[in-house]
Design a protein that fits this description.
mainly alpha; two-stranded antiparallel sheet; 162 residues; 9% strand; flat; two-stranded antiparallel ribbon; 40% helix; 5 helices
Length: 162
């Protein structure tokens, strides 16, 4: 009967034999492209080109037969819907994902302003702290710490903290 120790040794040897094939390694590139930073003028020209390209992108809703043509806009994407029926009135790249960035923070502030008093106390729960990653902007609160709604809104809007 084969002992458990012998089976462990054989399993480790098998892994060691497979390991070189599993490791990723870098390869030399004959002539790696050199990073050349853009000048301020080049950056401005690139931003203007991207902005104009976005403006020139036709809304998808303009392709609907017998539908009024919507305006060209600088936004990368947009959607206008009729509130009661949900009918799409204007659609420019509406099905593509976009990061909401500060819009989410502004909406959070609006909901807080409409539903809370500035003197209300906020207690930071484990869930509100533990999701933060090292590179997220935040105001440095710890689990169990308390601040007023006014202080929280300052942290949200002035430091763009999560």
């Amino acid at each position: 009967m084969v002992s458990k120790k012998l089976l462990r040794v054989l399993a480790c040897l098998g892994l060691l034999l497979l390991l070189p094939h599993l490791l990723a390694h870098a390869t030399d590139v004959a002539d790696p492209p050199a990073y050349v930073p853009m000048t301020e003028e080049e950056e401005e020209a690139e931003e203007a080109r991207i902005r104009q390209e976005s403006f020139n992108t036709q809304p998808e809703s303009n392709q609907i037969e017998n539908w009024p043509e919507g305006p060209l806009i600088y936004a990368h994407g947009a959607i206008v819907m009729e509130m009661n029926s949900g009918a799409v009135l204007y659609d420019k790249r509406a099905h593509e994902p976009f990061f909401p960035a500060s819009i989410t923070k502004l909406l959070t502030a609006l909901v807080a302003l409409e539903n809370a008093q500035m003197s209300d106390i906020i207690v930071f729960s484990p869930e509100s702290i533990n999701f933060l990653q090292w590179n997220y902007a935040h105001i440095g609160m710890m689990i169990g710490e308390e601040i007023t709604m006014e202080q929280a809104l300052h942290g949200l809007l002035l430091t763009s903290g999560n």
